[in-house]
Every structure is written in C-alpha cells, then in structure tokens.
Amino acid sequence: MIYRAQLGRAEALLGELLATSGPADAAVSRYFRAHRNLGQQDRAFVAETVYAALRRRRSLEAAAQSAAPRDLAVAALVRVRGLSRRALEGVLREDEQGLVARIRAAKTETFAPAVRADLPDWLWERLAALHGEAEAMRVAQGLLNPAPLDLRVNLAKMGRDEALAQLRASGIEGAPTPHSPAGLRLAEKPAINRHPLFQQGALEVQDEGSQLLAYLLAPRRGEMVGDYCAGAGGKTLAIAMLMRGTGRIYAMDVSAKRLAELAPRAARAGVTNVHPLVLSGDGDARAKRLAGKLDRVLVDAPCSGFGTLRRNPDLKWRHGPQAIAELALKQASILAAAARLVKPGGRLVYATCSILPEENEAIVDAFAAAHPDFAPLSCQELFAAQRIALDCGERLRLRPHLHGCDGFFAAAYERR
Q1: 34-82, pLDDT tens digit by residue?
Q2: Using H for helix, E for strand and C for coil, what is the string for 167-198?
Q3: Phi-psi region of 318 (alpha: psi -120 to 50; beta: other; left: phi over 0)
Q4: CA within 20 to 30 Å of 76's CA: 187, 220, 260, 313, which one?
Q5: How far is CA 50 from its chain centroid?
Q6: Pick the catalytic residue: 229, 303, 353, 379?
Q7: What SS3 class is residue 139?
C-alpha cells in the first residue's frame, strides 16, 4: 500500500533532481540524510519512483504530455511500476484522474525512436549511426532496466561457492556471474553492507564488468602495479586479491577525497600492499619517479559513464556532445601519462564505462599510432589464459543487453 505523503516526497526529490546538474545518487543520499525519520519502505518507494522517472523521462513526458515533476512521478508509477487504479486510490488528487487516463492511453509505438529509447536526440542519433536503428534500440533498452546487485568475493579470504552457501544460509539468493570467477549476482538487493561476510572483508559490491578489468590486467604475485585512476579503489582491491597480498600497488588519483575512501575498504579486506598516491596532474613529480618501472598499469579513465545508465540514469541528461569532446581530450592525456610508467615487457590496459567510440576506439587508435612501442594484445586471449570464456576479440566491449553487466570498453597493450 502506498500513501499520498510518499508520492509528495518523490515529487519533491524529483523536482530537485530535474532542477540541478549534480549527480542523482548524491542528491538522493542528501535527501535521505535530511529526512532520517523515513522508514525503509518510504525510502524504497521514493528512490524507486525517482529513478524510474529519470530512466524513462522522455517516454513518460510524452505519455503524460507534461514535464512537471509530479506528473512524471505519477507516470512512473503507472507505466514503469505498473500500479493499478485501485493501488492509486487515496493517493492521487481528484483532478489527476484525467492525467492517469492520458498516461494509460498513450501508445509507445507512436513515439519517435529517441523517445522510445529514452535518450537525448544527439545520443540516439549517435548510437543509430553506429549500430543501425534496430541494434541501437536493443542497446538503449538494455540500459533502461535496473541493474542487479553484483558482488565480488574476496578470493584471498574465501571461495566463491562457500560465500554463496553462506549467503543462502542467511536467506540471500544469488548465483555465480557468467564470466568473472569472483562474481556473484544477487536475486534481490538486500542491505549487504550489514552482512557479516561484507563486514569481514569477504565481499565487495562491484559490477561484473568492473571485476573483469582486473582479470584483463592479470597481475602476478610480487609485481609492481599501478591503478592510475583509482577513485575509491574498487578495482585496486580486485587487483590486490589477484596478487594475494604480495608486491606493491600504487593507487593513483587526482582526488584526495576519493582515495581516502580506499583505506577503510582495504583494512576491511585485509589488504596491506596498496600505496595511495594523490596526483597533482598528469605531470606529477612522484608519478614521474615511477616511469618505466611498473609491470602493469590500469587506466580506468574518467568518462561519460554512459555504460552505467542502469545505475546512473541522470548521466544521459547531464552530459552533452561538448562534454564528450572535452572528456576525450582528458582521456588521451591521461593514457599518455600512464603509459610512461609501464616498463618494457609490461602491460597497459585502457578502460572506460562508456559505450561511445569517441571515448574508446578513437582514444586507443590515436594512442597506438603515436606509440609504436606498445603492441596490442587480444583481450579474448588474455581471458582464455585464465579460463574465462568470453568471445570479445581483440578489444573488450561489454553491453547490458548482451552480457548482463554494465557497458565497458577495454584495450590491452604490451610495451615492446
């Protein structure tokens, strides 16, 4: 059962999100911190309604013939969450019955392709030109479904089967991910951070696609490794797991705030071989001292994040073509700086969670042309060497509708 007050809260939060350009997840967190009296059911209703409206904003606006936050929230309840007229009794105002009728009567097939795909015109046109309309629609539809909760089992502490058995014993259902040897995909979204396995460092929340990047890097025990855009350290910890506590990992990022989140996570996971390094920029003096010394370097470059629209649907409304062009310049500069750290015979992996060639193929093609000392490696062969069966060819391209994980791109090179 839902209540009028819940819809009012969803309307207020959605109005705030539509009026600002900041990240939706941060705004949602701020809203819930400011309304600590809300129960778990209220929070779930507000979050699910708001994210449904953000994911399908264009088609909901078309169905409601309105862009007002309340009308979008009502449209999300009707068209996305499938609430019946009876379920909405006592929730809607008397004058909103016509709105509901209009929403229900709207025919999706009459909408323009970009509206059916729930994408900005420019992004739809780019995907359609790249894949053709039929496949572009499949890509778009795959990005509209809510993402499942993926976990990475810390194999340095526990086997995947054992972790799954313990989760099931506590009432949490899941299954192994199709490709990552450390991944579990849960059937629902419990508060996993309260589970003993999480608190003991045996589990981390991490999308399967993100996990696969560590296997693509394939660090060996005792090596010196760099995670050049480490952020809060999710991939750093996956790399550390594969190294079984040996060697040295430099977690590098320009954001001291993001890197600060790594220390407690590493402590919980029992990782002691990570060395955070806050960079002043691509020409950082401390990073220069590592030039030509690292065995492997991962560059998970800052990007549009369009491969993560299932989790971050606001990104498609916040980033436009100009932002993509600016990101591409930054990505090329970061890749060139990180490549200098790789020693001869070492491996370099460039990755993004974007689905746009401007941030992916265009960047590595230009890099390869300017750096003939870096030879391309086949991602499929790198995975096969670790008994990961993934038909991807030379470069990794993951898509939600094909692989079930976030959209990722990666290319691997060896310094001659």
Answers
A1: 999 998 889 999 999 999 999 999 999 999 999 999 999 999 999 999 8
A2: HHHCCCCEEECCCCCCEEEECCCCCHHHCHHH
A3: alpha
A4: 187
A5: 18
A6: 353
A7: helix
Check pLDDT > 80 for residue 1: no
DSSP at 86 = T
Residue 405 falls in the annotated catalytic set: no
Tell me which residue of 193, 144, 192, 149 sits closest to 312, measured CA to CA.
144
Q: What is the pLDDT of residues 295-306, one digit of tens each?
A: 999 999 999 999
Yes or no: say if 14 and 69 are a contact pair by the CB < 8 Å rule: yes
pLDDT tens digits along 392-408: 999 999 999 999 999 99
CB 350 within 8 A of CB 301: yes
Helices (H) then strands (E): counts for the chain = 21, 12
* The pLDDT value given to residue 105: 94
Residue with tokens 């099931």: 168
The strand pair at 342-352 and 149-153 is best described as unpaired
Q: Which domains does the chain have, with CATH numbers?
A: 4-111 (no CATH), 208-415 (3.40.50.150)
